Amino acid sequence: MLNDKLRPQTNKFTNLIGEKIEIDPNIVTIIGLFISIFSGVLYASGNLAAGALFIILSGFCDMIDGAIARSHNRRTKFGGFLDSTCDRFADAAIIIGIIYSGFVDPILGALAIHSSITVSYVRSRAEQEGIKCSVGIAERAERLLIITVGSLIAALAGGSHNIMICTIGLLTVLSYITVFQRIHHALMNLDD
């Protein structure tokens, strides 16, 4: 939702940057994954603000890899596949770091990972059936924004566990709502 509204404006900005970068977009995708993993390590060490900062950096890489591919006519099916796969690893690494730090209960963290991965799976499966399925209240950009803002607020509150529990709880609930929105969208658009 937020992604679709901001995409035209962000694409103008990122395309200008993408035109100037002469690097394989898949390398940028991998760099973004390693930044996300490092974010997870920072969360695991209890550093909420730094973890949030590195989520922002990884998100920048996630926007730039596509801009490079578009600007240099290097879009490939493998690039899209790699990007989607790395996103799943990145999301899990961040939440695993938050779980390891003790900011949230492992069950809540596991549900957050499950719901995030399921959002992406449902879209992928629907698109295999020929349905565009980028619908729902909490796509990846929104989920990362929730973690980033919640982490920064928790850091300002002295490392508040309660704020992080609310943050990951909100993320999980919105992700499951998105799953059901996408299932409903598929139901309305699939012919038996």
Report on the architecture of this protein.
By secondary structure, the protein is mainly alpha-helical. It is built from seven helices and no strands. Helix 3 (48-71) runs antiparallel to helix 6 (140-156). The longest helix has 29 residues, at 161-189.
Structural class: mainly alpha
Instruction: Based on Cα principal axes, name the global outline.
Output: globular
Give the oligomeric state of the chains in this entry, treating copies of one chain as homo and distinct chains as hetero.
single chain
Largest sheet properties: none
Would you identify the regions where 5 or more consecutive residues have pLDDT less than 50? Answer: none
- The portion of residues forming beta strands comes to under 5%
Query: What's the overall average pLDDT, rounded?
Result: 91
Rg result: 17 Å
The count of DSSP E runs of length 2 or more, i.e. the number of strands, is 0
> What is the H/E string?
HHHHHHH
Number of helices: 7
Helical residues, percent: over 70%
Distance between the termini: 28 Å
Secondary structure topology:
Blueprint lengths: L1 H19 L4 H20 L3 H24 L5 H25 L4 H23 L11 H17 L4 H29 L3
Helix pairs in contact: 1-3, 2-3, 2-4, 3-6, 4-5, 5-7, 6-7
Keywords:
192 residues; mainly alpha; 7 helices; globular
Question: TL;DR of this structure?
Answer:
The protein is mostly helical and 192 residues long. The protein contains seven helices and no strands. The chain is globular, with a radius of gyration of 17 Å.
